[in-house]
Design a protein that fits this description.
Order of helices and strands: HHHHHHEHHEHEHEHEEHEHHEEHEEH
Number of strands: 11
Number of helices: 16
Shape: globular
Structural class: alpha/beta
Distance between the termini: 89 Å
Largest sheet: 7 strands, mixed
Strand order of the largest sheet: 1-7-6-5-4-2-3
Bound molecules: pyridoxal-5'-phosphate
Strand content: 5-15%
Amino acid sequence: MAITDSQPLCLLAVTEERREGGHSQPASPGCPSLLCGSPTAMESSEFRRRGREMVDYIADYLEGLEGRRVYPNVEPGYLRPLLPSCAPQEPDTFEEIMKDVERVIMPGVTHWHSPHFFAYFPTANSFPSLLADMLSGAIGCIGFSWAASPACTELETVMLDWLGKMLQLPAAFLAEDNSEGGGVIQGSASEATLMALLAARSRAIRRLQAAHPELTDAAIMEKLVAYFSDQAHSSVERATLIGGVKFKAIPSDDKFSMRGSALQEALRKDKAAGLIPFFVVATLGTTSCCSFDNLLELGPLCNKEDVWLHIDAAYAGSAFICPEFRHLLNGVEFADSFNFNPHKWLLVNFDCSAMWVRRRVDLIGTFKLDPVYLTHSHQDSGLITDYRHWQLPLGRRFRSLKMWFVFRMYGVTGLQAYIRKHVRLAREFESWVNQDPRFEVCAEVTLGLVCFRLKGSNKLNEVLLDRINSTGKIHLVPCLLRDKFVLRFAICSRTVESAHVRFAWGHIQALATSLLETWRE
Ligand SMILES: *Cc1c(COP(=O)(O)O)cnc(C)c1O
């Protein structure tokens, strides 16, 4: 090849290198970035090799989790001294980075997928989901409109119908047969609650202004009140703060359930004071103790009062795919929106929060803006969905792929078996706690969570939990039920077996024994 003056020097360099076999993959002709030798960090040939190595690393990590300390033994600020203070000027190698994963990262990881992890609620993890997420990253589309990637939008709509049918949701929530409802994947239950609240707020304002056109948005907003149980997740109260509306926490009953009578009383008082009830959140499976609000009482009341009913079943929702637990969802037919997190208990990795609305115009009407750069020729056909109107951000990942992989590779029976195994393990743990007279179970065990404590003071239980977590063999978090400090034992890991639960209980018993030997109130 003749070298001319006009040819850039970098092209010369790359050409030379290729002649010496420096590239195993032929560069595509005319690709400017390759020809200029601009840093690509990793060519696809190396990606193939590193990808296989990474898959091995991940499989080794997950298989070897039992041998790692579940709760890290590090102090705040541990990481900064382990890293340089600036990004490297020249590239590091993949080997160096992977070495640092073990040196810097792993010592500070709480291993959520360890079979010794019983804290919070589960977060889902499965091989089909991990692989689908990789593919989603590779396709890397941003599915804000149908045209921005039709498969991304359409698979999501179908997956939410599949999942809705697994839960036996009322047909009104499904998108098939051109109903008015439909499902969407949100990033989290918190976002779903916020979306529902904002949609309810718009609907309330529109309806009031239809009857009283003289009322301004601001005049209505300052009177709107949202309601939820004193057991609701903190994200619900947060949604009212973000949405700029008042709220009332309704006292739950002795089973930590919000009842119709308590809500009715609050609605009556507030209406008498000139306020406008507009939004109720019912929780199925509360975070503290997995209690269930009484949907069959709350639902008809909300419908009668023309108040939006949103259901937060973030954790428990996955269990409703089992016929024996489906009754816990009875009353969903009264709801305007329903949400749960497949990323908690349905083997689909974070983030994947499934939300259905009875009337999608309620959501879309809240946020619809169509700048020219986002419009496309199909959008007014009525047949397609532009999911950007259903959510807060514009951008969205191809998250339905991981649902599709998981649903197909487990099948509904596999998913049901998974839920049942976790419930069975929780029951086992509950029965052991009940057999030890030093302990008490503090709330009804319905699914995979057991709330328990040593009979005695809060201080005693705080010290017990502190010893459990500082020993690092298992990991638990507490909650407050009324004013009692309670330990939560949640069945979490995909790989947890009866032997792990038995080990955990034996460990807790031993720590309790040594604590009680020296304990003075
Ligand atoms: C976990 C949980 C949430 C929060 O879920 P995110 O998806 O993290 O926002 C909300 N409500 C309940 C009942 C939960 O258990």
